[in-house]
Amino acid sequence: MQYVKLGATGLDVSRICLGCMSYGDPARGNHEWTLDEDTARPFFRAAIEAGVTFFDTANVYSDGSSEEITGRALAEFAQRDEIVLATKVHGRMRPGPNGGGLSRKVILAEIDASLRRLGTDYVDLYQIHRFDPGTPLEETLEALHDVVKAGKARYLGASSMYAWQFAKALFLADAHGWTRFVSMQNHYNLIYREEEREMLGLCADQGIGVIPWSPLARGRLTRPWDETTARSESDQFGRTLYADGDRRIVEEVAHIAAARAIPPAQVALAWLLAQPGVTAPIIGATRLTHLDDALASLEVTLTADEIAQLEAPYTPHRTAGFQ
Question: How do strand 84-89 and strand 54-56 relate by DSSP bridges?
Answer without folding.
Answer: parallel
